[in-house]
Amino acid sequence: QVQLVESGGGLVQPGESLRLSCAASGFATSTSGMDWYRQTPGKDREFVASISPGYTTYYAESIKGRFTISRDNAKNTVYLQMNRLKPEDTAVYYCFSPFMKYWGQGTQVTVSS
C-alpha cells in the first residue's frame, strides 16, 4: 500500500528554519524521484522542489538558495530543509510521487511574528 506521511510543519518567526519530512512506504523514493509542493487558500498548488533518482534537484525561483531537498534512501524519506523563512512561505506543504501519482496529506507551515 502506497503511503506518504509528511511531518515537521509548525509556527515559526521570519528568519527561522524548519525541516519537513516525507516518509514513504509501498515504493522506493530512490528509484522514482520525489517532489514538494505548497498551497495557500484560494491558490493553485505550486511546485517547490524536486529530487531525481540520481540526486538532480530543481527549485522554484521563489525559494532557491533558501530551501534544500534531500533524500535518505535507508529511511525511504525525503526532506525539505527550509531556511530564512518568510511570511510568504506560509502554506500547506505536500510531498508528491510523480511515479506513483500519489500525494501526502500535507503539513502546515506558518511564518509569522
Provide an overview of this structure.
It is a single chain. The protein is 0% helix and 50% strand. The protein is mainly beta. Strands 2, 4, 5, 6, 9, 10 and 11 form a 7-stranded mixed sheet that branches. A 4-stranded antiparallel sheet has the order 1-3-8-7, with no helix packed on it. A hairpin with a 6-residue loop joins strand 4 and strand 5.
Offer a few descriptive terms.
mainly beta; 113 residues; globular; single chain; seven-stranded mixed beta sheet; four-stranded antiparallel beta sheet
Task: Please specify the SSE layout and strand pairing.
Blueprint (H helix, E strand, L loop, with lengths): L2 E5 L2 E3 L5 E8 L8 E6 L6 E6 L5 E3 L7 E6 L4 E6 L8 E7 L4 E2 L3 E5 L2
Parallel strand pairs: 2-11
Antiparallel strand pairs: 1-3, 3-8, 4-5, 4-9, 5-6, 7-8, 9-10, 9-11
